[in-house]
Write a structure and sequence with these properties.
heterodimer; A: alpha+beta; Alpha-Beta Plaits; 2 domains; four-stranded mixed sheet; 7 strands; elongated; B: about 575 residues; alpha+beta; globular
Chain lengths: ~200, ~575
């Protein structure tokens, strides 16, 4: 019969249509604007309407999500910022877009370099979010952010003030990574202490 | 591991005067005398069975030699052969064209002419292809420098240790930021003049030998046309509604990926490969990693091999689903099938995002493994997809579309291509297999761990667009079979065999890594001279090579079918224009 294929296809779209309401009824009141509802909609079991109403609803980001680097500082006992970066330059060397610029600090008395960046720029318009800087940083000083809402009218060259974020923020967005790195650091310090003792 | 090993046949014995083995350390294959190239190439195709010319490219061994490199394979499987022609690097650099032998060389030779300035004698239509006629010089030559030239290779010294930030345009002000050829005046340039050569190449089709003396007309489709999935242009000569001749015009998205690649370090190229075929960054990563791993001679741990297979097959599934959805969009079935496809794709991209950190620009592979293991919750989701959801959804697509009478009448018999033509035009991937050639790199020359899996090479025999559509569904089903096995077999263990290094040491030599990407054979030809940057970095892009046969597919069909054919070949302009 001519038209059988079309009818068969229409049965599929009809099923999708009905599924929407079935799921809405089964999840009455919980399907939208709730974390479970979002999880349900983006799971393999999800059916029916699938979209997430951004920005009212937000999909939880996976820990490894990466968007633009930031610099991590530890908070000192008196609230001072202990910048982890030593301005070793590995991130500038590995950066595929060459969007990182670092000025090293020099000691004004001796003229020798001090392990601390005097200036640090990231041209966020060039950055391709590859995550190499965070991956190869030996001091866990530069990390990839989760904040992707950075649209602006002008050019985006981030300087040190804009880039610095506390370690507590890092621990919040990447808890597993943070815990793993802290453990490694403590183990290293312990072995160092054992050696010197 | 797939390797272009020293070929079993002894070409030097067969052609004692014309061929000698390539004995440079790290190199393999044969060096053919320029004057005997056609003779040797014909023998390779007809006597030795190397019927599929995979890649043609040039290497500029500045300052002495220019080399043209050919990679040919047998469609019956097995390792390939690589042969080269060396000519002195003095203009005019001339090499005989192999287009009469392997028609698939046509666009690749045009590319080599455009980017390297190698003139292919006997080529039917040797014009620039990726850059335009107002472009000065041949950009891949080592002595060519861009108007704002910073340094030969990254990392640039201005970034560290005294990285005073500057905007590139401060050093490269407007009007100084381009160069023109000496005889080119941008003031009196018009698009007509630019296309004069193109229209001249079509002029012979304009005369109709019809009794009615009807006019034939030239129609431009694109570069801005909804059916072209980007900035692709085709110039067609029509007789009524029937296509008589058709020339694709590409390069609107050209960014000289390969020059950027030669400025980059080996590792820095990895995220750039994401941006070729931006639907399948996982496969692109893999092909590039294969080529460099071959040069470095390093192995990949078991778990990483499995992760690579899983990611590549997921990538294939979402690519084919999107292709089908978008094909239906082109046909006028607006957005119902394509949004059904996007639903599945989003779920697959969730897995990519959890593992690699990004949905599309994955940058997941490293030399010697993958960057990190897949998180447990993503693996759980993956199982739900592979064992439950995706098989259901593929069947649903099948029910939705396959028997639809309108679809069948639009697709059946359109774009018909014979198996011989498909091979001659170096077509690879699903389109080749739908023409009746069961050639799949995963089987023909297994890379990674594909030799361990039990799957069928999907093949269809009519060679029309309907078969191109059906084979995508077949391939999704086969990919699900591979995924099923891969998830069950995947062992625990490390995912990197080497210590992560930001600067890898790559010994001198050449390597060609190729994989069966969703769109066809994706190859990376990498030459290292022991420095941190590749000396040559060439991408053999399936989209680019597959459209060589676009004219062949379209001639004789109606102009409305062009949209269908182009949609079903599966091109992506990021890869086509590079």
């Amino acid at each position: 019969m001519y038209g059988k294929g079309i009818l068969k296809g229409l049965s599929v779209t009809l099923k999708h249509f009905i599924d929407t309401y079935l799921d809405d009824i089964a999840w009455w009141g919980k399907r939208y604007y709730t974390p479970e509802g979002i999880a349900r909609r983006s799971s393999p079991q999800g059916r029916g309407i699938f979209t997430i109403q951004y920005p009212e609803e937000r999909r939880p980001l996976p820990e490894e999500f990466r968007y633009l680097p930031f610099l991590v500082y530890d908070e000192g006992p008196n609230g001072e910022k202990e910048i982890r970066c030593t301005s070793c330059g590995i991130c500038t060397k590995v950066c595929p877009a060459q969007c990182i610029w670092i000025v090293r600090t020099t000691d004004p008395n001796t003229g020798r370099p001090v392990p601390q960046p005097a200036e640090f720029y990231i041209d966020a318009d060039l950055c391709m979010n590859c995550g190499f800087c965070a991956e190869y940083c030996p001091f866990d000083a530069i990390k990839m952010d989760h904040d992707f809402e950075v649209a602006s009218y002008g050019r985006n060259v981030y300087s040190l003030e804009k880039l610095l974020k506390p370690a507590s923020y890092y621990a919040k967005i990447r808890p597993l990574n943070y815990a793993r790195e802290e453990e490694a650091r403590k183990a290293k310090e312990a072995s160092k202490a054992a050696k010197s003792a | 591991m797939a390797t272009v090993t020293a070929p079993a046949l002894d070409l030097a014995a067969r052609f004692p005067q014309a061929v000698r083995p390539d004995t440079r350390p790290g190199y393999s294959g044969w060096i053919v005398e320029k004057d005997h190239l056609l003779e040797v190439a014909t023998a390779l195709r007809d006597e030795f069975g190397y019927d599929l010319l995979s890649s043609v490219t040039g290497v500029d061994y500045y300052p002495d030699t220019m080399e043209v490199v050919y990679h040919a394979y047998k469609t019956t499987g097995g390792p390939g052969i690589v042969f080269k022609v060396q000519v002195p690097r003095q203009d005019p650099i001339e090499v005989p064209s192999v287009t009469p032998i392997w028609a698939g060389a046509e666009f690749q030779e045009r590319e080599a002419w455009d980017l390297l300035g190698i003139r292919f004698v006997g080529h039917p239509d040797l014009r620039r292809i990726l850059t335009w006629e107002g472009f000065a010089g041949h950009p891949l030559r080592k002595d060519w420098k861009e108007p704002f030239y910073e340094e030969e290779a990254k990392p640039y010294k201005s970034r560290w240790p005294d990285g005073k930030f500057f905007y590139a345009e401060e050093k490269n002000p407007f009007k100084d930021n381009l160069k023109f050829p000496p005889d080119f005046n941008p003031e009196d340039w018009t698009p007509d003049k630019a296309d004069a050569l193109l229209y001249a190449s079509l002029a012979r089709y304009l005369k109709s030998d019809d009794e009615l003396k009807t006019d034939r007309v030239i129609i431009n489709l694109g570069p801005q046309h909804p059916s072209t999935h980007g900035v692709f242009r085709a110039v067609a000569v029509l007789d009524g509604e029937t296509v008589v001749a058709l020339k694709p015009v590409v390069g609107y998205l050209h960014r000289n990926h390969e020059k950027i690649g030669e400025r980059n370090t080996f590792l820095q190229n990895m995220p750039f490969t994401d941006r070729l075929d931006y639907f399948n960054s996982m496969s692109n990563n893999w092909a590039y990693a294969l080529a460099v791993e071959k040069l470095m001679g390093i192995q990949v741990p078991e778990r990483a091999e499995y992760l690579r297979v899983i990611m590549a097959e997921l990538s294939r599934i979402q690519n084919h689903l999107i292709l089908i959805g978008m094909l239906l969009n082109d046909l006028g079935a607006y957005f119902t099938p394509s949004l059904y496809a996007f639903e599945e794709r989003e779920l697959i991209l969730d897995i990519f995002e959890a593992a690699s950190g990004s949905r599309m620009m994955c940058n997941y592979h490293r030399f010697g493994g993958v960057v990190r293991d897949i998180p447990p919750e993503a693996l759980q989701k993956l199982k739900g997809l592979v064992y439950d959801r995706l098989p259901r959804k593929v069947d649903e697509f099948d029910r939705l579309l396959t028997e639809n009478e309108i679809l069948v009448s639009r697709l059946k018999g359109v774009g018909k291509l014979s198996a011989e033509d498909a091979i001659r035009y170096s077509i690879t991937g699903p389109v080749l297999r739908a023409c009746g050639v069961p050639y799949d790199v995963r089987r023909a020359e297994p890379y990674g761990i594909y030799d361990r899996f039990d799957f069928d090479v999907a093949v269809r025999y009519n060679g029309d667009v309907y078969d191109w559509y059906l084979i995508r569904l077949d391939e999704i089903r086969q990919s699900l079979r591979i995924l099923d096995q891969a998830i069950r077999q995947m062992p625990e263990g490390p995912v990197m065999s080497t210590k992560p290094q930001y600067q890898v040491r790559v010994p001198p030599g050449e390597a060609y890594g190729r994989i069966e990407a969703p769109k066809g054979e994706l190859g990376f030809y990498v030459v290292s001279n022991g420095k941190p940057n590749p000396w040559r970095y060439h991408v053999r892009a399936p989209s680019f090579v597959n459209i060589t046969a676009l004219e062949k597919m379209c001639v004789g069909n109606k102009i409305a079918d062009f949209v269908v054919i182009l949609g079903a070949i599966d091109i992506v302009l990021g890869e086509l224009d590079r």
